[in-house]
Write a structure and sequence with these properties.
This protein is an alpha+beta fold. It has six helices and nine strands. The strands form two sheets. A five-stranded antiparallel beta sheet has the order 1-8-3-6-9. A four-stranded antiparallel beta sheet has the order 2-7-4-5, with no helix packed on it. It starts with a helix and ends in a 6-residue tail after the last helix.
């Protein structure tokens, strides 16, 4: 028997979209989608997507399952596949959201290295400078149409996922 509360939570690819992720990764600013939804993205989950959110300026709150966390500037949020989450942002908040398809994670992450296990932990933490630099590189590459774009995005995705897993491990693993 299915849980009626869980079945009432929307299951999206990107917030409000049901179609498959059409690219190697997806990268957009926080403003792009949040402005359309009056700076609030209600509780939802992604059955086949993993997300990283970097809040550069402004602020807000994130709910991860049943816990709420403040989002001051400089925060990184790791949202594993299937995790119920939602965001409330102050108007004009800026930052980046990078979304990875489960298939890309399967191709990139090797079994036995522990990276997948670290990335499976919901996390809210100060964003390491190296992660921010990699997320910005993904945004720049994603926004362009230069030769070898997909290869570079795959490589940058592997880099940032490793950096985030390392940072989660250094933080003791997961949000509190």
């Amino acid at each position: 028997m299915s849980d009626p509360i869980l079945s009432a939570i929307p299951n999206f690819n990107l917030f409000g979209e049901a179609g498959d992720l059409p690219d190697v990764v997806h990268c957009e600013t926080i403003e792009t989608r949040s402005r359309l939804h009056d700076w609030e993205l209600g509780a939802h989950r992604h059955a086949r997507l993993h997300q990283l959110l970097y809040l550069q300026s402004g602020g807000g709150q994130v709910s991860l399952e049943d816990k709420r966390h403040a989002l001051p500037p400089g925060t990184l949020v790791n949202v594993p596949i299937g995790l119920v989450h939602g965001f409330t942002f102050q108007p004009e908040t800026s930052g980046l959201v990078v979304t990875f398809a489960a298939e890309m994670l399967d191709q990139t992450l090797r079994a036995g290295e522990g990276v997948r296990e670290m990335l499976a932990m919901q996390t809210v933490m100060p964003a390491p400078a190296a992660v921010v630099e990699s997320l910005r590189a993904i945004f720049t590459t994603f926004s362009g149409r230069d030769f070898a774009r997909a290869q570079i995005l795959r490589s940058l995705a592997g880099l940032v996922l490793g950096q985030v897993a390392r940072a989660i491990d250094a933080e003791g693993g997961g949000a509190h």
